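dude i think i finally got it to work??
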Amino acid sequence: MPEVDAFNIEKFKSKFGDGAKGGLFYFRPAWPAGITADVTTTDAIYLVKTATVPTTTLAEDTLAWQGMDYKYAGKRTYGDLAVNFNVDISAKIRMLFERWSNFIHDPSTNLRETSSNYMVDQKLQMVGYDGQVILEFTMHHAWPKDIGSIALDYSSADTVTFDVTFSYIYHTLSFSETGGVSNTAG
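look at this
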């Protein structure tokens, strides 16, 4: 029988380190070429308050076989990307997302843009203590499906925020920064 090492906290710490921290991340927003961006991608990074790494789900399919259920992986689906933004003093970040939404579907003319013009890859990066990317999610063909409300309150002195929920087709992962953001306008 193989010998089992007793639990050693120093060995555990040397393997695990301090672990990844939730506050070490960048969301690098990108906008379609048809949008006039008053906020650059670099500036928008600092307006991000929170972001949630989307889920990946494999549906379970079942095949009846000799009186038993044979379960196997089915269709893959991707959850939405949720990002919470601080509103800058001129509310330019909010206006930018409103422009993008109106670009997708103009409410005054009821005209819709083609998906290849309004979908843009988005990048969410987890970084280590040294600021280097340890895991990068690229959400391909993303667009803002929901621009959340802004709560205004006379009794509050807090910076107001709003959520943007991005829908996208699929995401890819990298253990390092993959470079520039495609289709950026700023």
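The first helix runs from residue 9 to 16.
im so relieved honestly
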